[in-house]
Design goal:
Number of helices of chain A: 0
Radius of gyration of chain A: 13 Å
Oligomer: heterodimer
Number of strands of chain B: 11
Largest sheet of chain B: 6 strands, mixed
Shape of chain A: globular
Largest interface: A-B, 31 and 21 residues
Strand content of chain A: over 45%
Number of strands of chain A: 11
Strand content of chain B: over 45%
Shape of chain B: globular
Structural class of chain A: mainly beta
Distance between the termini of chain A: 37 Å
Radius of gyration of chain B: 13 Å
Largest sheet of chain A: 7 strands, mixed
Amino acid sequence: NAGVMQNPRHLVRRRGQEARLRCSPMKGHSHVYWYRQLPEEGLKFMVYLQKENIIDESGMPKERFSAEFPKEGPSILRIQQVVRGDSAAYFCASSPRGTGGYEQYFGPGTRLTVT
Amino acid sequence: RKEVEQDPGPFNVPEGATVAFNCTYSNSASQSFFWYRQDCRKEPKLLMSVYSSGNEDGRFTAQLNRASQYISLLIRDSKLSDSATYLCVVNPGGADGLTFGKGTHLIIQP
């Protein structure tokens, strides 16, 4: 039973380019969450999605960041016109339910470096 | 006030010893609570959920005190492999994103 999968594991982008991060949830999980961990910082919630719906994006920066979870395929976190401050580890998590405090299981993360 | 506060450590503990961490949370409406561990440059891994009645999993015991808004983790007979950062995690309710503490760094020494 495969866990949460993320790719790429490492991504290098120059300032101004676009970054696309992908996440496939665990089998049987339909709830996906994205978190960002800046160097020496704790994880910060960004967005919560179900298939074809954004449920809560209260942690997303207002500009340049977007997320989707289409009916088919992985969830995508997209960062346009990346800046050095976007360099971080981006983790995706999934859970079988969205309410009631079900545990979230994390993927290995994508480490984004902006040069 | 930070939403979830933890002592960052590091805690340097000899192998075989018992070690305890606490964390406090600010949102009294928080609904669920967890401990995760994170190894260097790895993803957080769920260690255990925390229930009001307290719960135990092998050498690990977690307690929740809703009145005082703190959560504890006790590790007995510590092993070298327990060296990691332990993250106190709260689901504040409403939105389902988890709120993470910055973590407590534990080093088990041989």
